[in-house]
Amino acid sequence: MRIIPVNCITQETKLAKTIHNSNGNVLLRQGTTLTASLLEKIKNAGINTVYIDDGYSDVEIEDVIKPELRYAAVKTIKETFKNIENDLAKKLSPDRELNKRLQAKVMNKYVENLRNVSNAIIEDIMKSHNLLINVIDIKHLGEYTYEHSLNVAVLSLITGMALRMNRHDLLTLFTGAILHDLGKVFIPTSVLEAGEEITIDEYEEYKSHTTQGYGYVKENKGFSATSKIVILQHHEHYDGTGFPNGTSGDAIHKNARIVAICNQYDKMVSDSIGSPAVPASEAIEYIMGNAGTKFDFDIANIFVRRINPYPVGTLVDLSTLQTAVVIDTNIDFPLRPVVQVLELSNGQVHKRDVIDLLKITDVTIKQIRYKDVRDED
C-alpha cells in the first residue's frame, strides 16, 4: 500500500483503502479497480491523493485516529465555525457589552461538543501509544479549513505527548489547536483564497484573524486561557518577526509555539486553493531550517522526529540512481528509513539489496517515486 496523487494513477489500479466523501459517506470501497470514470469521480469530490495497492507492500497504513472519530470531529468543527458565522450575522449588536454576552452565548452551544470530541480523540491516541505519524489523512478541498484544524490538533497532540505533557495540558493544547483558525470566520473568502495574489491591505486583513478570533472567545469561560492564547499567538515567530504583536521567545505560550509548527507543516503538505502540496520531507526540512528563528528549536526537533515522510511501502528514488521500496522506519530518524532496492528484469520486479539509510549515510533519498517501476520503458 502506498499513497499517491490521483493524477499519477494509471487505470486498472486497485484502491487500497476505502475513501469517503466530505460527509463521511463511502465514495469508493477498498479493492475497487480504478477506471477513468472513477478517477474523475474522485477528483470531483475534491480528493487529490488516495491509497493504492500495487503489490510492493502488504503493510496497511493506519490513520493516527479512527476514521469514525475523524469524521465526527470534522463535522463538529465545521458546525461550530459555520454556526458562529451565521449567528454573528444575525445577532451582533453595536453595544460592546451586549456583544460580549451574545458571543459567549453563541459559543457556549459548541463548547461541550468540542470538549467531547477532543477527549475522545485524546483517549484514542493515548491508548494506541502511536507517537509516529505516517501521513496525514486524505483531504477534501472543499473542507480544507475544518480538516486542517483537526490535523493541526492531532499533530499538536502527538508533539505534546512526546514532550510528556500531562492529560490536562494535552486537552488545552488540543482544544486551542482545533480553534486556532476560528478568527477566519471574520475574514472574507476572497481574502482567504487570494494566495500569492494577495494585496498588502488584504494581507493586513488576513492577519487580523488572530486578534478577531481571540477577541471572540476571550470572555468565554468554557475554554481555558491556555487554549485561547493559541488563537492569538499561533502566527508569532520565535525571533519576534511574526504577528499580531511581534512576541518572541518564551513569551509566546508553549501551546502556541507547538501549534505554530504543526500549522506550518500541515499547510505545506496539503493541497489548498492556490497552494499545491509539497512532499513531507520538504516540509520537514523547512521546519528544521527555521528552527531557532521562526520556530522554537527544541519543539521543532521533537516534532520532526514524530513525522514519517516515508511510510512502509513508499517507492523512492535513491542518490545511487536506483529505485527502492521502504520496508522499515528508524524511530526518531524517519528521514533515514530501511529500504530494499528494486530491479526490473524482463518485465518483472525483483527485490535486491536491503539498505539501512541510518547506517549507510552516503546513500540518500532524492524523491518519492509515484510512477510504478513496471511502467519503465
Explain what this protein looks like in three dimensions.
By secondary structure, the protein is α+β, with helices and mostly antiparallel strands. The protein is 43% helix and 13% strand. The strands form three sheets. It has a five-stranded antiparallel sheet, with no helix packed on it. Strand 9 and strand 10 form a beta hairpin. Helix 3 crosses helix 5 (167-178), helix 4 crosses helix 10 (254-269) and helix 9 packs across helix 10 (254-269).
Characteristic terms for this protein:
single chain, 377 residues, alpha+beta, Molybdopterin biosynthesis moea protein, domain 2, Hypothetical protein af1432, 3 domains, five-stranded antiparallel beta sheet, 12 helices, 43% helix
Helices and strands, with pairings:
Elements: E1 2-5, E2 13-15, E3 19-20, E4 26-28, E5 33-34, H1 36-44, E6 49-53, H2 67-91, H3 96-128, H4 144-162, H5 167-178, H6 189-192, H7 200-207, H8 209-217, H9 225-233, H10 254-269, H11 280-289, H12 297-304, E7 315-318, E8 323-328, E9 338-345, E10 348-356, E11 365-368
Antiparallel strand pairs: 1-6, 2-5, 2-6, 3-4, 7-8, 7-11, 8-9, 9-10
Helix pairs in contact: 2-3, 2-4, 3-4, 3-5, 4-5, 4-10, 5-9, 8-9, 9-10, 10-11
